[in-house]
Amino acid sequence: MNPSDLFAETLGVTFPVFAMVLLGIVLKRLKWIDTAFINTSSALVFRGAMPTLLFLSLIDADMSQALMPSLMAYLALATVASFLLIWWWATRRVAFEDRGVYVQAAFRGNGGIVGLALAGSMYGQFGLSAGSVLVATIIPLYNVLAVIVLAWYQPQAKISWRSIALKILRNPLILSVVAGLSFAASGLSLPDWLHTSGEYFANMTLPLALISIGGTMSMAAIREASGVALGASVIKMVSMPAVAVFFAWLAGFEGRELVLLFLFLGSPTAAASFVMARAMGGNARLAANTVAMTTLASSVTITLGIFIMQITGMAS
């Protein structure tokens, strides 16, 4: 396949996902959706629709393929290593009061929505199933590491580690993955009518979540973004995924495993980083700027990343 055809094929995978984000921006501009709608839809996705999608993806999956312990371990290791390296870099380049927010913004990705959507777009049911397991791998890490670095630079913030642990254990996405794996292992099957109803509910997850992401984007935040936000964005969208994927390739990962790793590590900064930064007294504007910049840039960086991996044979 020549490069132009390959690039067109890559766009066929990524553009439908990012088109939904763009649609969210347009709908917000037209005032067809508002903040109340976005808050309600985000809660519906997080508490109900996405857990249903993860559960069904796992019980319908061929677990001999979807469950990849070595990839899960590498993703966790790459996340922790990236976190530590970014923190070290921040101590040399970023003002003390902004370091915690900078580190969180540069390592914490939106794999649960953007990564999962792209995995499904690229690999169908396998992508959703394998992606569901990877979501459960990184969510606890993101939460714990983010709290550690934010608390380090905002010592006045009151931290309850028991509360954090309970939130992780009660996270609907993690619970749905545990339930899905357990149900799949049991050998049981859902009644057809219940499975079909669940699919109706689950099918609205990714469109609704992506539209909500677009609706929350602020062009003003991008225009006023500082050099610090730009630096965090470059690390999040280019440096971190490129280095992690390169070392994974050296370690023997290939094909779908490499692409899934790239999609999750190369996802834009999670909106939750803004929420947590604000709650802990950090620079919420820096967090918001990075979320907006990385979300906008991800349509380019992820498309080019997949194209490069395909043209070099890494994703074959």
Give a quick summary of the entry.
Helices cover 81% and strands 0% of the residues. It contains 15 helices and no strands.
Q: What structural class is derived from the secondary structure elements?
A: mainly alpha
Sheet bearing the most strands, described?
A: none
Per the principal axes of the C-alpha atoms, what is the gross shape? globular
Unreliable runs, pLDDT <50, ≥5 residues?
none
Secondary-structure element order, as H and E? HHHHHHHHHHHHHHH
Proportion of helical residues: over 70%
Beta-strand share of residues = under 5%
Number of strands: 0
Head-to-tail CA distance between termini: 12 Å
The number of distinct helices, counting runs of at least 4 residues, comes to 15
Mean pLDDT: 88
Write the layout of secondary structure elements.
Elements: H1 3-29, H2 35-59, H3 63-66, H4 69-93, H5 99-107, H6 111-153, H7 161-169, H8 172-186, H9 192-202, H10 205-216, H11 219-223, H12 227-250, H13 256-265, H14 272-279, H15 284-311
Helix pairs in contact: 1-6, 1-10, 1-15, 2-6, 2-8, 2-9, 2-10, 4-5, 4-6, 4-12, 5-6, 5-12, 5-15, 6-13, 12-13, 12-15, 14-15
How would you explain this protein's 3D organization?
Helix 2 packs across helix 6. It is globular, with a radius of gyration of 19 Å. The model has no long low-confidence stretch (mean pLDDT 88). It has 316 residues and is mainly alpha-helical. Helix content is 81%, strand content 0%.
